[in-house]
Structure formats: structure tokens, C-alpha cells
Specification:
About 5% of the residues have low confidence. This protein has one domain. With about 290 residues, it is an all-alpha fold.
Length: about 290
């Protein structure tokens, strides 16, 4: 397919996909059901991430076998990894459940054992890839220990950063391939790459438009909420001058509300994005 034909088809998909997505969201409770589960999963992910960060902050730099803190540090590291893994599994499973609900237009479970296992496989695969790339680089740095080694590692990091956008495009349908195509990690990667190569410009055009719309709405919503939060914080600080206890309680409540509201906004935006993304996948898959 040529460049101009692909662009034309990509633009032509915007109307039908958005219409189908809006019609789906109008079905009684459909969007609310999705947003609640995605929001709950993301909130759990955020809480587990904070817990992991707090646990990680206690992890000491010493790893010598004769150090009495080694056992405690290893336990802390294990708890950190478990917290991160649980959060990731919940979040990915919710996204896969969303995609299945939208694709089949049925009320299917979000946190099915299949989705959790697929999330685990995907997480472990990328952790393995990360280790395969990082361990040799770290070993090289420890072996060389020079400025030249640092420059080589910096070059590798820059190459990895440059590869982020192409990989994001090639893996654009990875989750859909796992959740709907019922393929393994490697099969899903191959399926995503094949679909992107086949429908490259349609994917680019629709993806850019969708990201721009969702991004603008999210940024505007974020700054509105943030501005309100700052005003309320100033009031809470003013009250704390009269009573420190009251001011502190108000600040904690405000922060908790702020996190929950931002989570709700993110859940709504991510749900809307994922609905349109999945419907695009469905249409391109059938062409």
C-alpha cells in the first residue's frame, strides 16, 4: 500500500472507529465498568509502587557476604520485587480484560487467570530482555572502570532511547495480540509487527490523532485539578498556623484526594484510549 493511500485510509478510520467507540460507551454501564476496574488496578499499582519505593529506600548498598545486613537487604529486595510484580500484573491484566470486553462486546472477567498468566509471561519476558542487555554492560563497566567505559555505556543508553519510538510503534498491538489473539509473547510480538508493517500509515495516523486528543484532555484536566489542589493546600497551611494538628490532617486528606482524583482522570483517559485502540485493531485485523 502506498503512502498517500495509507494516509487516506488512516484518516478515513478516525470517524468510524470513534463512532463505534462512543456507541459502545453509551451502552448502560459499559464505560463505567471498564473505568472502575482500570482505575482500581492503576490505584493498586500506584500504592504498590509507593510501597516498593519505600522498601527499596531501606535497601543498603553493601552486598559483601560477611556484612550482617546482607540477609535483611536480600529480604527487602525480594519484597520490593514482589510489590512491583503484583502491581504490574494487576495493571496489565486489567488492560487485557478491557480489550477483550471491547473486542467481543461482552461482560468478560478482567482479572481472569489467563490474563494474569499472560501478564506474568509478558513481564518476565521484558525483565529477561532487560537483564540480558544490562548484565553484560554492567560487567563491562566493572571490568573496564574507565572514562571510555562510561562513554560506551552512555552510547548504549542513547541507542536504547532512540529505539524506544520504533519499538513502541512495532509493539503497538502487542497486548491485543496476547489478550485477543491468544498467542504467546513471541507470537504476539510477531503478530503486532506483522500488522503494523501491513497497516503502517493507518496505525501512525490514527495513533497520532488518538494520542493528541487524549493527551490534550489529560493535560488540561491535570492542570485544573493541580491548580485547585494548590489553592486548597494554601488554605490548609493557613489553617495550620492556628492548629498544626488540624492543618496536618487537612494536608494529608487533600493529598489523598488529589491522588484519587488524578487516578480517576488517568483511568478515564486510559480507558477511552484503549477502547479506541482496540477497535482500531479489530478493524485493521479484518481488512
Amino acid at each position: 500500500m502506498g503512502f498517500f493511500e495509507g494516509i487516506e485510509n488512516g484518516i478515513g478510520l478516525i470517524g468510524p472507529v470513534f463512532k463505534e467507540g462512543i456507541d459502545y460507551c453509551k451502552v448502560k454501564g459499559a464505560f463505567f465498568r471498564i473505568a472502575i476496574r482500570v482505575g482500581a488496578a492503576y490505584l493498586a499499582y500506584t500504592i504498590l509502587f509507593i510501597i516498593a519505593a519505600l522498601i527499596g529506600s531501606a535497601f543498603g548498598p553493601t552486598v559483601f557476604p560477611n556484612d550482617p545486613k546482607v540477609g535483611a537487604n536480600m529480604l527487602i529486595l525480594a519484597l520490593y520485587l514482589v510489590a512491583m510484580l503484583l502491581g504490574n500484573l494487576l495493571f496489565l491484566s486489567a488492560l487485557m480484560g478491557l480489550m477483550q470486553n471491547v473486542y467481543y462486546k461482552k461482560n468478560l472477567p478482567f482479572f481472569s487467570m489467563e490474563n494474569i498468566l499472560n501478564s506474568l509471561k509478558l513481564t518476565l519476558f521484558f525483565v529477561l530482555v532487560f537483564l540480558v542487555l544490562c548484565i553484560p554492560a554492567a560487567a563491562f563497566y566493572l571490568w573496564a572502570g574507565t572514562t571510555a567505559a562510561s562513554l560506551v555505556l552512555l552510547l548504549i543508553l542513547l541507542i536504547a532511547m532512540a529505539a524506544t519510538i520504533p519499538l513502541f510503534i512495532l509493539f503497538y498491538y502487542l497486548l491485543q495480540e496476547m489478550a485477543i489473539g491468544k498467542k504467546g509473547v513471541i507470537g504476539s510480538i510477531k503478530g503486532s509487527v506483522a500488522l503494523v508493517r501491513k497497516k503502517f500509515w493507518e496505525t501512525i495516523v490514527f495513533g497520532v490523532v488518538l494520542l493528541a486528543l487524549v493527551g490534550v484532555v489529560y493535560v488540561v484536566s491535570f492542570f485544573i485539578v493541580y491548580a485547585i489542589f494548590i489553592v486548597l493546600m494554601v488554605l490548609a497551611v493557613a489553617l495550620s498556623l492556628a492548629s498544626k494538628e488540624v492543618g496536618l490532617v487537612l494536608l494529608l486528606i487533600l493529598y489523598a484526594v488529589f491522588v484519587v482524583v488524578l487516578t480517576a482522570i488517568y483511568a478515564v483517559m486510559l480507558s477511552a484510549y484503549s477502547i479506541m485502540h482496540t477497535l482500531l485493531y479489530k478493524k485493521l485485523q479484518k481488512k
